[in-house]
Amino acid sequence: MLSVYFKQYERGSLSIPEVNALEHETGRKLLRTGLEERYGLRLPGEELEKQLAAAPDGKPYLKDHPAVFFNITHCEGFAACAFYDAPVGCDAEKPGYYLDVLPRRILSQEESRFFSLHKENEAERDFLFCRFWTLKEAMVKCTGEGMDADVRTVTFRFEGDGLPYGAEGELLPGPVALYEPLAMSAPLQSAECQPRPLPLPVACADSRFHVRQFLMPGGHIVAVCAAGEIPEVEFCRNH
Question: pTM to 2 decimals?
């Protein structure tokens, strides 16, 4: 089972340096919690820092526990740490404004054609771009390449009966239920407000990797990517 420990928080009046420090410490806390609960490894602050090392590609690992695979992500108001029994990547973002140049820099030709079908609806376009972005980030964090890699060489395809494909497999114009209306009225810590899989499952064209995407309470999108099958994903909220 792939486990994702997460925490949501309000920025309030914190300065940028204070937010950066909060994100860093929250990620470390989630890592410590997951290591203890999932693997029985109790590593207090200083001991954890001594254990952490970086591979040649920059991906962090534990010196004495190289078979423990984890990945941390954080964005404004949200942090998560994913654990799995194989290399794993995790990314979280909240849909919203992005630079117009970014789709051309990260989308493959097939993804660009799919994206172009939804550019007239701003909310759907922003949501769809965030789905692609988190998938690409999770993928390169899983492989250790980082976003300096040419992520246009990897294609993600949405699956489901609602997709507008023609007889030859080509994409056709037509409505696609890419997302559900977001109910944001529930408090972030509400027990009733749980992560849920996003409509239209997604697959990586590179069959070595498998991905899953979820909508979190508060509207963040979380993508996880693993080298191998992902039979189940569990979310553990950290208060």
Answer: 0.86
